[in-house]
Amino acid sequence: MSEYFKGIGKIEYKGKGGDDLSFKFYNPEEVVNGKSMKDNLKFAMSYWHTLTGQGVDIFGGATQDKSFGETDPMAHAKAKAEAGFEFMDKLGIEYFCFHDRDIAPEADTLEETNKRLDEIVDYIEVLMKKYNKKLLWGTTNAFSNPRFMHGAATSCNADVFAFAAAQIKKAIEITTRLGGAGYVFWGGREGYATLLNTKMGFELDNLGRMLKMARDYGRSIGFTGDFYIEPKPMEPMTHQYDYDCATVIGFLNKHGLEKDFKLNVEANHATLAGHSFAHELRVAREAGMLGSIDANQGEVFNGWDTDNFPTNVYDMALAMYELIKAGGYPKGGTNFDAKLRRASTDAKDLFRGYITGMDTMALAYKIAAKIIEDGRLDSFVDQRYSSYNSGIGKKIVDGTATFAELEKYALDLGEVTTNESGAQEYLEGIVNSIIFG
Ligand code: XUL
Ligand code: CO
């Protein structure tokens, strides 16, 4: 087997003075919150950006070569797999995530495509054993092929729905076979461009039908992992149905999917929806549905999904605070749904991107753990809501207060005389002192 990333050895933790090919903050064995950082963060490689993305944008072609020395499609798929496992091994990343079409190229018929998938899955199974790597989640690419131009589960065309179902069925089978801990649905083109041609309620019900069939089939073949929906408000569609965590939670509850499904929350999708990443994680956590994370970051001034590697330690610390408060990942992990900038063409850049991302996540996690250990934020928040611990507040929470009783209480009160400061600046100061103090 060839070596694809020549001249780059295993990336090690060297601390603050380390060079560009070492971790400065991520020490996999360091114990925080009673667990190694490796197990707290459960890093995963995204097959698509890492092994397939070539720097293409709408104004220009590839700047990054991902041929791995092969031209034949199946030889290329195998070389990609080998390169991917070498990459994970060198970075000490234990997990990976893929779309069906990332690992094997589509053929002229579904039957032939499935055969190609089986051949590559056989090989990936060998590589997983050899390198001791695990599948965090699998998914289906039901958005790139032109047949999905109107969507997949929400297509106006029943033949497309059937085709998507067949593809999802196969993708759940291979995910199960590889011991995947999760299966993701990102609604690639599940949305609409104009209401003028769209039966919105019908499309949403079809989405529910597809997810129920997927859940039932998965469970019937022994898939015990979590299903995830990955919310995103727009792009490629003008309006995507899985807008944000709150929207998706409502949808899952309506369709009786809330026991089998959790959320795979992506940072850049959160900001596209007009939310902070921490907000989206809080919504998921409060619903008991924080499943997994797609770690990345958008360009501050662009309104689209730029999938940069995360570097904003402050925002990520507030996000990791939510993860720790949720009790960590149930079955998910930190998948780098992140890509190099188009002009990053040095052979080392892919490693540098991941190293910076992993260091950012580690710094953020450790800061979040310190904020919790410090306790001032928690005690401030507890105090802020303390009027609900006794008296009328307790009755409201217990569900024993009535409108009549509340009216009498308010009349007796005359006026609300105590309303304490929210003290946002004080709390922001605490966070800063923990980060920089
Ligand atoms: C697209 C995106 C996807 C999903 C998996 O914005 O995030 O790559 O993570 O389909
Ligand atoms: Co994603």
Molecular structure report:
- With 437 residues, the protein is of the alpha/beta class.
- The protein folds into two domains: 31-374, Divalent-metal-dependent TIM barrel enzymes (TIM Barrel, Alpha-Beta Barrel), CATH 3.20.20.150; 377-436, no CATH class.
- Helices cover 46% and strands 12% of the residues.
- It has helices at residues 37-41, 47-52, 73-91, 100-103, 110-131, 158-177, 200-220, 245-254, 267-272, 277-286, 313-325, 349-374, 376-384, 391-398, 403-413, 424-436, and strands at residues 12-13, 22-23, 31-32, 35-36, 43-46, 95-99, 134-139, 182-186, 191-192, 226-230, 239-240, 261-266, 290-295, 334-336.
- It has an eight-stranded parallel barrel with strand order 5-6-7-8-10-12-13-14, surrounded by four helices. Strands 1-2 form a two-stranded parallel ribbon. A two-stranded antiparallel ribbon has the order 3-4.
- A hairpin with a 2-residue loop joins strand 3 and strand 4.
- Helix 3 (73-91) runs parallel beside helix 5 (110-131) and helix 6 (158-177) runs parallel beside helix 7.
- The protein is globular.
- The chain starts with 11 loop residues before the first strand and ends with a helix.
- Bound molecules: D-xylulose and cobalt (II) ion.
